[in-house]
Amino acid sequence: MRRLWLIFAQTTTVALALFFVIGVLRPDWVDRRPAVVEVPAAASSTADGANAAASYREAARKALPSVVHVFTSQKIRLPKHPLFDDPLFRHFFGDRPDGETRSAGLGSGVIVSSNGYILTNYHVVEAADQIEVGLNDGSTFKARVVGSDPDTDLAVLQIRAAKGEELKLPAITFGRAEDIRVGDVVLAIGNPFGVGQTMTMGIVSALGRSHLGINTFENFIQTDAAINPGNSGGALVDTQGALIGINTAIYSRSGGSLGIGFAIPATTAKSVMEQIIQNGSVTRGWVGVEAQEITSELAESFGLPDADGALIAGVQRGSPADSAGIRPGDILLAIAGKPVKDPQAMLDLIAGQEPGSTISFKIRREKTLMDLRLKVGKRPPPSRRSND
């Protein structure tokens, strides 16, 4: 019995010694419990589901076929070199006629109807005598300008199928630009630098951008989605692939994207497009005044309580404003009951009035408040316009 006890004691001692040595030299052998890793709910889904959650492939599938390349060219007449006026020079080198060359341009456009109407920027097709549209599937068509609106920098093109064929183009879906908010994800589609159709991603950086000196009527969506030369006239879409804006301009010192791009809201673009398709042009109200912003210094000199309103700097003779008795120096406070905050707001309110309608102008003349009635005229084209 004593012998068995000694064997047990010696065995236990050796085992404890071995455990101690192992614990000192290789401690990672001691604790071999399996590690517990928490898996987020999103990561526990299938790989395809995880990729789809972070992808905009569905928006791309819907919107990409509706965005086209717009190629333009313009004939430019080169002046005759002065040496050709010398008879001796012509004797040796011949009498050569004036040369001609063509300048090429590129931009983008958005298919807005299955029967061939395309929305783009006016500056993309301005002065072009040949326009060609390239579709997403590689086919090309000659296009004509249905109408344009330089004040918003928009134009409508139309392409036609060959005789005996019928167009069935993938028209884009219009979204509600008024529902977007700063921080929403947006996608810009176009043909930057002519490399081919490209989609970039960003967010809405700001809304209602104006006073930029780009267009007469400005209410831009600002985005940091990369927009470069060639993107003009292309689509700004939401994550569902619906059109919320027409890419128009960028702020850049290098010519490339610096993360500040501007798009015309889809609601404005749609309204202009419908008028152009129906009437060939856009009709806006006009009264014939020039307005100036009221600075704090001007407000103090005029004895005004604040800087709201627009200072009438000029009135065109024979215009509706002249007939109503509006004078330079008047402060315009409201139009048709809606307050005027600055000259841009005044311009937008007047343009939104129906030509031929009679509206009220609330003005301050010196220290007297007055309500004048005037009949709104039709806004003339830019080439004939001297006042707003």
UniProtKB/TrEMBL annotation:
InterPro entries: Chloro_Bact_Ser_Proteases (IPR051201), PDZ (IPR001478), PDZ_6 (IPR041489), PDZ_sf (IPR036034), Peptidase_S1_PA (IPR009003), Peptidase_S1C (IPR001940)
The organism's place on the tree of life at top rank: Bacteria
Pfam families associated with the record: PDZ_6 (PF17820), Trypsin_2 (PF13365)
Keywords of this entry: Hydrolase, Protease
Residues in PDZ domain copies: 288-367
PANTHER family linked to this entry: PEPTIDASE S12, PROTEASE DO-LIKE 8, CHLOROPLASTIC
Protein name: Trypsin-like serine protease
Organism: Rhodocyclus gracilis
